[in-house]
Amino acid sequence: MPEASTAVFEKDNFNAEKYVKNLVQDCVGGPELQQTKQKIQSLSETVSSTLKKHVYENYMQFIETAKEISHLESEMYQLSHILIEQRNLLTTLRDESMLDDQKNIIEDQSLDPNVNEEQQNRKAIQLIKESLIGYKGNLDDKVFIHEGGLIELDSNDYRPICRIHLFLFNEVLVLAKVRNEKKLEFQTEYETKKIAVINIKDLDGVNKNAINVITSDGARMFQCINSAAKLEWIDKFEHAIKFHQLKKPKKAQAPQPPTSLKFEAPQKSTDSELLTLSPTASEMGRVIVENLPPEWLVTAPEEIQAEIAQRHFEDCLALLQKCEDHLAQDSTFHGAAEIGEKIKTLKGSLASVLMHELSNSQSRSLQAALRSSRRPLKLLVEMEKSREACGILLRVCTSAIRTSQRQARRNNLAVSELFFCDVALVASEFLRAFSAKASCTSALIVWCNMELQYFASQLIKHYLTKDTQLEMVAKVVEGVREPCLKLREIGLDLSYHMEGLLRSTLGQLLDEARYRLVDSIGRTEDPWQPYNLQTKTGLRTLLKEFDVLGIDFRAYVTGDTWINLTQATVSFCRHLLQTTESCAYLAKYDSLQRDSEMLIRELFLSQHSIKPPNSLNADMNFVAKNKTYMAEILLPIAMKRFERIAGKKPDLLMELHTQLRTVPPKPKPRSVYQTDVL
């Protein structure tokens, strides 16, 4: 008797079938085989109990491990908090050390104090040009004002981006990036007349000592080493802007404005002092006092900067308009020109910030982009920046729509309905925002045409390719036509333009389908015998199927399972009605109606003209019956189906039906066998 042990079953090459075969051969008689079976059963129970024990032990170890992991997770959480605090501390130390180590170019070099200011300016410009890598601009006619190292911050989360060194001149602001070797690589430059500086309030230590520089490229935030350096930079920027304003030529001789707009209140004079004044002096003093601007107007530029920094755009625009209205009524006071230039610059800065806000919604979905654009759009329209605002809005909408179209194609969603819903949403929001600006409507129309062209090209590329089945083509076209017509509800009709964009491609697909379908007729040999469905169930199923298509074959049923038409005729009925339905959807476009009817006509004539071969002894009356059924019953049903779907009368099919009725088929006379029996 063979020995049964677990060692046999643990081998890698163990084969159960082979083991049982050998076992049967080695065992002598049934009792010995029964004993071996009992031993194997005992081994199975032992292994099963051992497995259960191991599973239990593993489960207990798993529970213990889970407890340890839970304790470890708590410790890791505490450690993470400690590391975050350490990181914040090290970041602060690093930023301070970065700014401490970054020395100024001019301070590191010794300028001779004995030479005049012009020579010192030339020397400073020469040193700056030598220290800048990649700068090709002209600084020779500029006046150097200030320089220093700062850290550029991300305007969203105030995260440090890189170390920046700024060189401020009377006409330009040069930005250089600090490399690891403390070399300065030129980054960009801005004209001082096109920038504005905003003092940003510290927010719980998040962005300490930061300033916001509004440029033509948008807002850029920089962090200074301390509050004193921050105030110095703000003062130097104001000096540079004022330097540019004072440089402008005057149209006529006029008194020079004071260098500061901060006017001190006149001291009260005693009556005796007023009496000692001559009439001329008294009159001059009265004129000076009367020409002082109101206090709110003097502080308005600083308040406007603070409102922009705090994103109180509505209050900022209201204050700007108030200042403009006051200057329009009275501009004879001292400092009016300087205040007017500041207000003009700040208005441009506000417009730049609002346009930047409008552009920032580009990465969002269309609905989110439109919601976030309402506030800046309203303010830009009030500032007479409608043309620029509508251009930015439409670019944002283009990006959002095309992104959603790509996602819809990936997920096999209805791209056509999504596209036209998005266009309707954009048009409604656009007309609401620019209802008082009729000149902007042309931009919307041009945008709709451009987006429609792009959508049609993507539709042709992905869904209307060569060899696409006619049924799929009809489904795509109907999916485009229905939502396109709904745009008429908001006064936007793009259906004719859409038809023109798809006409050429759809015409080619119809031609290809006609050649393909006509060529498929007559490929299989028809025995020209009645159609046998084999079972009653098969017959009932066929009758129900054609009931849906509008054809009743019950008058042609003979016996239990027969239809008194050929199988080819029955199959062609199904095929023709399905093709007619697809062509009818395409025929809703006037330019495609004739091609659609031509396809149905040629397909019908191809089947109708088939004749049995001479070698086949077919019953010509049965052949004529099939042709008559096609001409008198099938073709009228197809015509009604076409007219119901397309909403137009099928003139070519009606003409064909008339021709077939006037020329009925002539059945071949049957031979009658006669006999003289009886």
From TrEMBL:
GO CC, any one term: exocyst
Source taxon at top rank: Eukaryota
Gene Ontology biological process terms in this record: exocytosis; Golgi to plasma membrane transport; protein transport
Chain residue ranges for the region called Disordered: 248-268
Family classification: Belongs to the EXO84 family.
Keyword Protein biosynthesis: no
Pfam families: Exo84_C, VPS51_Exo84_N
The entry's keywords: Exocytosis, Protein transport, Transport
Keyword flag Electron transport: no
InterPro entries assigned: Cullin_repeat-like_dom_sf, Exo84, Exo84_C, Exo84_C_1, Exo84_C_2, PH-like_dom_sf
Gene3D superfamilies: Exo84p, C-terminal helical domain, Exo84p, N-terminal helical domain, Pleckstrin-homology domain (PH domain)/Phosphotyrosine-binding domain (PTB)
Protein name: Exocyst component Exo84 C-terminal domain-containing protein
Organism name: Anopheles quadriannulatus
Domain Exocyst component Exo84 C-terminal, first and last residues per copy: 295-494
